[in-house]
């Protein structure tokens, strides 16, 4: 090994130990909040089971912390859970990798999926502007292309996970130079959400996250689903202000309780004028079928988180697909184990 | 800035300064070899012109080193050159980025470029096998599919370059378990070289590297070209053994001298005893047409290095596209400045404005 690979390896090691430390703090913080929610501590014997499972099945005790969180939510330990940091260290690396990272390239939706399920209007990539079909558009024609038939558009910066990097433009405040300094991204039309969803979230569009997987045989299936609403006054669903609740992957029914970002229990008032408990996400089966159909085009990205909404006409609109670092914690905690049959727990043994 | 960002930033800075140090050593070693080739030192005057150009136009003295190399090959300084390390730091990150990096996914050639000019016959990605059209193939059927019309094939790993990560398989020694260990990549049929090219290297495939750019109007143009000839006794073009010769981008004519990897002048015995003088690369304009057309599909990757071969039927075969860290120094030194009209020398200033 030369000096370059040695130093690279040392840097990687440092980064990964830093990552796992952060994950531990995060998990323990959430555990603490969950214990407050239920006024009940996670018992010692369950902790012991998590510790044992982390070491024996997942290969490292650093994976036990998320198992604590899942156990506290699920009222006891279940075999088959995938901790978030295990997912990032092994599943993301070995079953997603650079092909999964392509999902960050929002300008390629049409190229990859050949579908109009994304509300894309055009894109800006590496100094050039393109229309929705990927054809080059000269700078002086961009504004008229975007604002034909609409007064506002959204600009989403590439690799803008978690609602960061979202900007609104009107025809009058749109400047090419501003897009250039924001960097690569996609223009999307503003979606008016279905009336049944608008009652939960009057100020902005809520989103449904459906997590799908592709098995070792390349068969795709949906594993968990979460409904996210922005708190009143926010213009988009951003992790910092969101409220989440699980959605039954078979029926589309909203679960209760819902959780705020810090995992404290959300009051019903967070859902505006509506009460989602016992109700069903509109057109849920259509949404699930659509993302499964799209996942079949990229089966080599073995796990994808799809963010979508149903618009006022009942059409499913996909905002983004996350094929790299999509978080699995909330699904595992509320609906898991979601991935127990996929053999992911053995990936750490593959060097 | 939080702790995480501080740590990330200092790691980045350490990596960048390490990179520049390594590039400096590399450039100075090449310069020493060039001075050795010609028994002529780079003059002090040219050196200082390079130094002031590096600082004033490109923003840092660290970019002078490759300018020395270019100046020595060209027998004098020329304005507009892009040093290889400047290209990596600014052009690659600003005008290529993740979009360019996707080109390293050999297994997804077809998805991104949708062309049958690649000799691709299947791929392995994240545990799954696919045929040439991207349809899923069960593991038990992949061997019979791949070897239906051939007894031997190549497996090329994703993110591999210049002959690195290339493996040969026959139907007898092919095992899916071996592929799983190697990781993601593409299966390609073996290209039998055109007779005009087989002369230079009987065993290895000679490949043409065409460098294309996409201008600010998304116009695609060819900017540099050279041929790589595998050394005698190599089964494919390996970086340790090849010889490179510049090729005129207008006519396809070889432009001697040819260089070895260490930039020493290659002798005729390095390439099968044949002479390059007054010869051209066969089907050159076809090759240019193919890569220009392909680049039009991905104009947002603003610079691409294409590795192209001509088979024994005169067909153009694209072996790989390199849209990320493609090498520009050989072209810049022998044919440059290749990119002087593209405004690349200003990118570092924009970056600084953003930081401020």
Please describe the topology of this protein.
The complex is a heterodimer of chains A (351) and B (356).
Chain A: H1 3-38, H2 44-56, H3 64-74, H4 84-95, H5 97-101, H6 109-113, E1 120-125, E2 128-131, E3 136-137, H7 139-146, E4 152-157, E5 166-170, H8 176-182, E6 185-189, H9 195-198, E7 207-214, E8 220-230, E9 242-246, E10 259-260, H10 284-295, E11 303-310, E12 316-322, H11 329-335
Helix pairs in contact in A: 1-3, 2-3, 3-11
Chain B: H1 3-38, H2 44-56, H3 64-74, H4 84-95, H5 97-101, H6 109-113, E1 120-125, E2 128-131, E3 136-137, H7 139-146, E4 152-157, E5 166-170, H8 176-182, E6 185-189, H9 195-198, E7 207-214, E8 220-229, E9 243-246, E10 259-260, H10 284-295, E11 303-310, E12 316-322, H11 329-335, H12 347-355
Antiparallel strand pairs in B: 1-2, 1-6, 2-3, 4-5, 4-6, 7-8, 7-11, 8-9, 9-10, 11-12
Helix pairs in contact in B: 1-3, 2-3, 3-11
Keywords:
heterodimer, A: 351 residues, alpha+beta, six-stranded antiparallel sheet, 11 helices, 12 strands, globular, B: 356 residues, 12 helices, 36% helix
Written description of the protein model:
The complex is a heterodimer of chains A (351) and B (356). Chain A is globular. Chain A has a six-stranded antiparallel beta sheet. In chain A, strands 10-9-8-7-11-12 form a six-stranded antiparallel beta sheet. Chain A is built from eleven helices and twelve strands. Chain A is an alpha+beta fold and 351 residues long. In chain A, α1 packs parallel to α3 (64-74), α2 (44-56) crosses α3 and α3 packs across α11. By secondary structure, chain B is an alpha+beta fold. Helices cover 36% and strands 19% of the residues of chain B. Chain B has helices spanning 3-38, 44-56, 64-74, 84-95, 97-101, 109-113, 139-146, 176-182, 195-198, 284-295, 329-335, 347-355; strands spanning 120-125, 128-131, 136-137, 152-157, 166-170, 185-189, 207-214, 220-229, 243-246, 259-260, 303-310, 316-322. In chain B, the strands form two sheets. Chain B has a six-stranded antiparallel beta sheet with strand order 3-2-1-6-4-5. In chain B, a hairpin with a 4-residue loop joins β2 and β3. The longest helix of chain B has 36 residues, at 3-38. Chain B is globular, with a radius of gyration of 21 Å.
């Amino acid at each position: 090994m030369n000096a370059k690979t040695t130093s690279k390896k040392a840097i990687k090691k440092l980064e990964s130990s830093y990552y796992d430390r952060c994950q531990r703090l995060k998990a323990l913080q959430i555990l603490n909040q969950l214990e407050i929610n239920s006024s009940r501590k996670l018992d010692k014997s369950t902790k012991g089971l998590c510790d044992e499972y982390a070491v024996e099945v997942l290969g490292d005790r650093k994976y036990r912390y998320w198992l604590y969180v899942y156990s506290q939510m699920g009222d006891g330990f279940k075999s088959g859970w995938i901790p978030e940091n295990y997912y990032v260290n092994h599943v993301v690396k070995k079953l997603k990798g650079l092909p999964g990272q392509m999902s960050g390239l929002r300008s390629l939706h049409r190229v990859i999926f050949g579908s109009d399920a994304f509300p894309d209007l055009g894109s800006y990539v590496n100094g050039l502007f393109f229309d929705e079909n990927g054809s080059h558009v000269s700078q002086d024609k961009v504004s008229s292309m975007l604002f034909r038939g609409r007064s506002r558009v959204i600009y989403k910066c590439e690799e803008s996970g978690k609602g960061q990097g979202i900007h609104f433009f009107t025809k009058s405040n749109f400047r090419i130079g501003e897009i250039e300094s924001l960097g690569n991204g996609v223009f999307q039309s503003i979606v008016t959400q279905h009336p049944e969803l608008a009652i939960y979230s009057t100020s902005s569009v809520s989103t449904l996250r459906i997590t799908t997987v592709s098995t070792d045989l390349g068969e795709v299936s949906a594993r968990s689903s979460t409904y996210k609403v922005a708190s009143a006054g926010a213009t988009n669903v951003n992790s910092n202000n969101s409220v989440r609740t699980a959605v039954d992957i078979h029926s589309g029914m909203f679960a209760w309780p819902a959780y705020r970002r810090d995992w404290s229990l959300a009051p019903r008032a967070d859902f505006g004028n509506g009460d989602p408990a016992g109700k069903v996400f509109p057109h849920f089966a259509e949404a699930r079928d659509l993302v499964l159909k799209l996942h079949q085009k990229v089966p080599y990205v073995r796990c994808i988180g799809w963010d979508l909404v149903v618009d006022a006409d009942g059409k499913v609109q996909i905002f983004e697909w996350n094929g790299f670092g999509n978080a699995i914690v909330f699904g595992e905690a509320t609906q898991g184990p979601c991935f127990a049959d996929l053999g992911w727990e053995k990936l750490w043994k593959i060097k | 800035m939080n702790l995480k960002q501080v740590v990330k930033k200092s790691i980045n800075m350490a990596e960048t300064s390490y990179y520049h140090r390594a590039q400096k050593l590399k450039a100075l070693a090449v310069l020493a070899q060039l001075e050795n080739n010609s028994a002529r030192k780079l003059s002090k005057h040219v050196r200082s012109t390079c130094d002031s150009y590096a600082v004033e136009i490109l923003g840092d003295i660290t970019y002078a080193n490759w300018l020395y190399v270019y100046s020595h090959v060209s027998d004098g300084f020329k304005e507009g050159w892009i040093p290889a390390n400047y290209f990596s730091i600014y052009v690659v990150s600003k005008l290529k980025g993740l979009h360019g990096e996707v080109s390293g996914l050999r297994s997804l050639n077809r998805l991104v470029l949708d062309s049958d000019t690649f000799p691709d016959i299947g791929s392995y990605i994240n545990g799954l096998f696919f045929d040439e059209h991207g349809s899923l193939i069960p593991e038990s059927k992949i061997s019979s599919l791949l070897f239906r019309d051939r007894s031997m094939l190549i497996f090329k790993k994703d993110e591999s370059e210049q002959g690195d990560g290339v493996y040969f398989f026959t139907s007898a020694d092919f095992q899916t378990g071996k592929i799983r260990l190697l990781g993601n990549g593409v299966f390609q049929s073996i290209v039998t070289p055109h007779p005009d090219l087989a002369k230079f290297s009987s065993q290895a495939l000679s490949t043409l590297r065409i460098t294309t750019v996409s201008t600010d109007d998304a116009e695609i143009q060819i900017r540099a070209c050279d041929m790589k000839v595998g050394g005698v006794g190599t089964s494919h073009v390996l970086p340790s053994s090849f010889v490179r010769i510049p090729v005129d981008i207008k006519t396809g004519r070889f432009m001697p001298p040819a260089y070895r990897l260490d930039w020493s002048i290659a002798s005729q015995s390095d390439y099968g005893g044949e002479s390059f003088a007054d010869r051209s690369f066969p089907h050159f304009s076809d090759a240019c047409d193919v890569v220009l057309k392909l680049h039009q599909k991905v104009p947002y990757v603003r610079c691409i290095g294409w590795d192209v071969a001509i088979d024994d039927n005169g067909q153009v075969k694209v072996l790989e596209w390199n849209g990320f860290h493609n090498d520009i120094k050989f072209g810049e030194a022998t044919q440059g400045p290749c990119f002087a009209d593209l405004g690349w020398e200003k990118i570092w200033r924009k970056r600084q404005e953003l930081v401020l």
